[in-house]
Design a protein that fits this description.
- By secondary structure, the chain is α+β, with helices and mostly antiparallel strands.
- It has seven helices and four strands, in the order H-H-H-H-E-E-E-E-H-H-H.
- Strands 1-2-3-4 form a four-stranded antiparallel β-sheet, with helices on one face.
- Helix 1 packs antiparallel against helix 3 and helix 2 packs across helix 3.
């Protein structure tokens, strides 16, 4: 006789917890707020509290997926405070795992998914960069961020022309 052992209290996903928020009694909403924010609720407006809790639950979940995100953001914030300008380098670009990039090229729609390990999946295969995927699709050298619309090539090109006087 086979018996399957399933944990009685399997951890609920952030999606499940967010989905349950509208059905939770208000005292449980307040308890969850204390657990996540470490204090009493700032208001009795349930809609506000649910939205803030939903955001916080997702933030906690994504921190598990990409632990380096907080450190990268703190460095960017420190740089912004120190210089007044946000320097964004291409190598610092790390899309959230699950981000879907879509591009139509020669009548065919191509989709790429960002994975949790910092790579990209295209047609069931892993790639290290969007540029490698753009090259695979077009059979020529392309900037992946430009190909997938993450950068405006025309604006960058005209800025270079204007600056070379």
């Amino acid at each position: 006789m086979k018996t399957s052992k399933t944990p009685a209290t399997a951890p609920r996903t952030a999606v499940a917890q967010v989905h349950e928020l509208p059905n939770l009694p208000f005292p449980e909403i307040k308890a969850l707020w204390r657990k996540l924010f470490g204090g009493e609720t700032p208001t009795h407006n349930r809609q506000f509290l649910e939205r803030q809790l939903a955001y916080k639950l997702q933030e906690v979940e994504f921190r598990k997926v990409d632990p380096g995100l907080l450190e990268r953001n703190n460095k960017k914030i420190a740089s912004l405070i120190a210089t007044g300008k946000l320097r964004r380098r291409d190598r610092d670009f790390h899309p959230t795992p699950g981000t879907l990039f879509t591009r139509e090229y020669h009548g065919k729609v191509h989709q790429v998914i960002a994975t949790a390990d910092g790579q990209y999946e295209f047609e069931g295969r892993p790639y290290r960069s969007l540029s490698m995927i753009a090259r695979e699709i077009t059979s020529s050298r392309w900037s992946g961020p430009v190909f997938f619309g993450l950068k405006d090539y025309a604006a960058k090109s005209s800025a270079k022309k204007g600056g070379s006087k």
